[in-house]
Structures are given as structure tokens and as C-alpha cells.
Specification:
Blueprint lengths: L1 H19 L1 H7 L3 H13 L5 H18 L5 H4 L9
Helix pairs in contact: 1-2, 3-4
Amino acid sequence: MGLLASAACFATWNFAVKHLGAVVTSTYIYLVPALTGAASALVLGEPMTPPIVGGVALTIAGLMLSNRKGSRRGQRRGHASPSSS
């Protein structure tokens, strides 16, 4: 069972990299803890404790912050931002 799950993970990861690109696909790997917390509550009936809710919120907030458009990070260092080129 573990071998089949590992093979499926490898295949879906490569499919995602091919269609979305490595950078975008890598961003989605950080959603795994948030999805695991939600799935454990929905499927297994696990309680959503404050640390889990906080972790999910911080994970999603971090992803939103890192993927926002118009980031000025490159401009502060004297480089053009990717959106301006």
C-alpha cells in the first residue's frame, strides 16, 4: 500500500510540475498541513484545536503573502520586479 501511494505521489507531482511549472507546484506543497488538518476534522472527526486552527491560518496567510502580485521585494534591492519586465 505504501509503495502504491508513493508511486501515485511521484506521478502526480511530475504531472503538476509539467503543467504548472516547478515554482507554482512547490508553492502548493505548503498547503499539505492545512489540507491535512481540514481532512482530519472532516473525515476522522478530529477536533479543530486552537493550535491547529492557528497553524492552518498562518500557513494560508504565508502562502497568500508570498504569492501576492505587485510584491516590491526586488525593487528595494534596486532590481526590477518580475511583473515590470
